[in-house]
């Protein structure tokens, strides 16, 4: 937990269709026992598996957060089928429908997934997961891939560390907590709105 008392958020990204071995199950239990909140895209596959494992962990302080895709075009709102999965405790419904190949477009909730996470762990997946990893790099979020010994993420950037086990992920996260964030991850001074807006605004 951070010194401010806020429970940090670990965002777990991965396939919305397939579950690759026990990686998600083991990761979800570790995140829960370590005292973090869990954030996913709220769907099936790896997202559901990691959420279920986290949810079933007793005496955890954190919660399962799901960022849900939706469509508000045409004057009404609809969300994608099978969202949120039954283990999401705090669903965040968005008006952003784009996923998969369009995962880096501004109409994708992937931006919210990454910006709302303090740390990102990528499980096996395809284009959507790859987009989230790239967004983590763009937005300065620490990111690691947990791929076991036989899985992959297409187009995974070479600078992203790859772990074979949850223990390796845990060691990496603990290492982040022992050293300051790189300059790109620190908050930068922002000009106050009062200095930009017209006084009569």
Automatic annotation (TrEMBL):
It holds the Pfam family LDcluster4. InterPro entries: LDcluster4 (IPR041164). This is Molybdenum cofactor carrier protein.
